[in-house]
Amino acid sequence: MGAGHDHGARSAGEKHAGRLWAAFAVLAVFMVLEVVGGLISGSLALLSDAGHMFTDVLGIGMALAAIYAVKRAARGTGNPQRTFGAYRLEVLAALANAALLLGVAVWVCVEAVRRFTEPPEVLAGPMLAIAIAGLLANLVAFALLRAGSKESLNVRGAYLEVLGDILGSVGAIAAAVVIATTGWRYADPIIAVAMAVLIVPRTLALARSAVRILIQAAPEHVDVAAVQRTLQDVPGVAAVHDLHLWTLTSGMDVAQAHLALQPEADVADVLAAARTALHDGYDIDHATLQLEPAGAGGTCHPAGW
């Protein structure tokens, strides 16, 4: 016998969809402004920042599409074959965001190497004005996404991209000031490369978090051995086996286990106590527990994986 919970819960990303839409609108407008300004001024730093902002807009768009798909599945209008709903789409969107950021970083570095040999003339005035406007837009988006980044991997991907954009805007402002005051055009490609390199560690961390979920590794904050001991200590439990822990999407950790019962153990009491222990100790609210009464040998065949 077993027990589980409903899959209709709201994902962490869905709770912050309104803020995502607002950030999407702000960044889309200023992305166009930075592209135009970068082309007019000839600034690679500004185009680098616009490239980051493009990945923000595209990434937030994918995040919103994933949230919509999850919501649609939760309403029962999705594919019935997807018994876990579409929650993993949020994780895939986060992984795609990381890939986009790495691609932009590589492009900026390649373009910067070309410019080191023959740095083009850069119009510092327009570059400075647009970089300041871009910084303000990124600060607005940063404030909108900050709260959701602590709950949703999908929102965290967009948040990290905006954080990278803030650094990019500051770098573009610095490059414009250097060029305007000294005429040293190498400041533009140097700062562009610095901006690209700074975002890489955060991007790799985001990709690592997404991959951990996709390969169904146990949540980093949960000690599997401790969970096993907790279930073993539930009154009436004789043994625990086939324990599996994984994350469905951000904020949704899942557990599965077989609990062999002691003689005279009350099934309802053991089930209630095990659920409470998982919730109180590890914040796991979705647990599928198979209870095996004493003397029912031969009915359970543990998985070999």
Automatic annotation (TrEMBL):
Domain Cation efflux protein cytoplasmic as annotated: residue spans: 219-293
Annotated GO CC locations: plasma membrane
Location in or out of the cell: Membrane
Residue ranges annotated for the Cation efflux protein transmembrane domain, each copy included: 20-215
Gene3D superfamilies registered for this protein in UniProt: Cation efflux protein transmembrane domain (1.20.1510.10)
UniProt-listed Pfam families: Cation_efflux, ZT_dimer
GO molecular function: zinc ion transmembrane transporter activity
Origin superkingdom: Bacteria
Membrane topology annotation: Multi-pass membrane protein
Keyword Signal in annotation: no
Keyword annotations: Ion transport, Membrane, Transmembrane, Transmembrane helix, Transport
Family listed: Belongs to the cation diffusion facilitator (CDF) transporter (TC 2.A.4) family. SLC30A subfamily.
Descriptive protein name: Cation efflux system protein
UniProt source species: Spirilliplanes yamanashiensis
